[in-house]
Specification:
Strand content of chain B: under 5%
CATH architecture of chain A: Sandwich
Radius of gyration of chain B: 22 Å
Structural class of chain A: alpha+beta
Largest interface: A-B, 77 and 54 residues
Number of domains of chain A: 1
CATH topology of chain A: Jelly Rolls
CATH topology of one domain in chain B: Serine Threonine Protein Phosphatase 5, Tetratricopeptide repeat
Number of strands of chain A: 18
Strand content of chain A: 25-35%
Distance between the termini of chain B: 90 Å
Shape of chain A: globular
Order of helices and strands of chain B: HHHHHH
Number of strands of chain B: 0
Oligomer: heterodimer
Chain lengths: ~300, ~130
């Protein structure tokens, strides 16, 4: 090997080393799509890569396909890179399946799957513009989102709340593992400022129903069934849903100043990054998510 | 030649890393600001001033998850729900404040956003 060739090879190796140093954190954390912005009581994360279950930590990165698991009277608020807020309520199983965000074009594409429990979705900034293919999937319904705030619940709680509504009734055949109740919260037609009216399209059983008024809801009782509604969710129904997303100190919400605990442990080495220069396209495999409780790793209540 | 090429390839990766880290830092700041009631309220007011009402709602939700007993953030939360035309949700939040002390100034803020709305009952006075 000539000296010139040797020097060239050396430069190549140095450049490769430099590149790997800069690129490897990107590769290692490229699936980071947001942060755990607030945590209450027992929240765990099941890694899609290692299958290990660990306690959720405040401001730790939210990784694509990792499953959030919340306990009773527990909540997690996820803040995604596009400033979308996703709140996971009690006894829930949720994962971000897909996340595409191009801040330069203000385009985004997000898919979140909820297999169990309650949730609240609040679109990020620029509500005036269509959010693109932003959707939330439950076992029996797909919710297409057009810049809005909405809530839902999957499972037994959905059945319980919906069956108390006159528009649904007790005789509807529903499956406790997959029944889904979805309610739009806003912005409504009389919204103030420059925020635009929101809407959602709920598709189930081959039919799509559009909801564009605050307080309107649909119920999908089982797989293959068409959505029931839209109907106006009663105050009692909304209250029952809110209890699952509770931010109050009421004993019924499992909170209270004395019993309420919030993790505030900082992730010291959580310097993760996500690719957002240009566009981050993070697509996950669609897979059936287990709904059983974690078998191992008993959790400290507070992660402190 | 190859070395220069690889060096050139490494530069965008580093730039990308920097941009992405900055975005994550922004989220960290938003989350950190809502750990305390006062700073969380400050952030929410900034977002309201910037017409980011859902962002403010999210900030207040974080404050309330950490400080469920705080009154002022819930009043502002209820006001925001009114501004987003979710009056039913606002009334539900206000109902949770029954038995708490609400200042007239805070209540005026709620009325400005919600119009005529029932004021939560004040705390009961203890019998001497």
């Amino acid at each position: 090997m000539s000296k010139r060739a040797f020097r060239a090879a050396g430069r190549s190796a140095a450049a490769l080393a430099a590149m790997s140093m800069t690129a490897s954190p990107v590769l290692a954390q490229a699936n980071a799509v947001g942060v755990n912005a607030a945590i209450r009581n027992k929240v765990e994360i099941r890694s899609s890569a290692s299958r290990q279950v660990r306690p959720a930590v405040l401001r730790a990165r939210v990784i694509l396909n990792d499953e959030v698991r919340t306990g009773p009277a527990s909540q997690l608020q996820i803040l995604l890179l596009d400033r979308t807020t996703f709140t996971v309520g009690a006894n829930a199983r949720v994962a971000v399946d897909r996340f595409v965000y191009d801040p330069a074009r203000n385009s985004r594409s997000t898919s979140v799957s909820v297999t169990k429990g309650a949730f609240r979705f609040m679109s990020g900034r620029n509500l005036r513009k269509p959010a693109g293919s932003v959707q939330v999937r439950t076992p029996v319904a797909t919710i297409g989102i057009r810049g809005t705030i909405f809530e839902g619940v999957v499972g037994e709680d959905a059945m319980r709340i919906a069956k108390a509504e006159p528009a649904v009734g007790k005789k509807v055949k529903a499956k406790k593992e997959e029944a889904s109740l979805i309610v739009l919260r806003g912005p409504g037609p009389r919204t103030q400022g420059d925020t635009s009216r929101g809407a959602i399209d709920v598709t189930a059983g081959g039919q799509a129903v559009t909801i564009d008024g605050p307080g309107l809801a649909v119920f999908v009782p089982r797989e293959g069934a068409a959505p029931i509604g839209p109907f106006r969710l009663s105050a009692a129904g909304l209250q029952a849903l809110q209890a699952l997303l509770r931010t109050t100190a009421e004993p019924g919400g499992g909170g209270g100043k004395k019993s309420h605990k919030t993790r505030n442990t900082l992730l010291g080495v959580a310097g993760g990054v996500a690719v957002i220069g240009g566009a981050a396209i993070l697509g996950g495999k669609k897979k059936k998510r287990p709904t059983q409780q974690p078998q191992s790793q008993p959790q400290k209540p507070n992660g402190r | 030649m190859t070395g220069r090429l690889l060096t050139l390839l490494a530069l965008p990766a580093a730039a990308l890393l920097s941009t992405a880290a900055s975005a994550q830092d922004d989220l960290d700041s938003l989350a950190a600001a809502t750990e305390q009631v006062d700073s969380g309220m400050g952030l929410a007011r900034q977002q309201i001033a910037a017409s980011d009402l859902p962002g403010a709602l999210g900030a207040l939700e974080r404050v309330l998850l950490s400080h469920p007993e705080a009154v002022a953030p819930r009043l502002l939360y209820a006001s925001l729900l009114c501004r987003l035309d979710d009056r039913q949700g606002a009334e539900l939040e206000l109902g949770l404040l029954a038995g708490t002390q609400i200042s007239d100034a805070d209540w005026a803020g709620v009325q400005a956003a919600c119009g005529a709305v029932e004021r939560p009952a004040p705390p009961r006075r203890k019998k001497k």
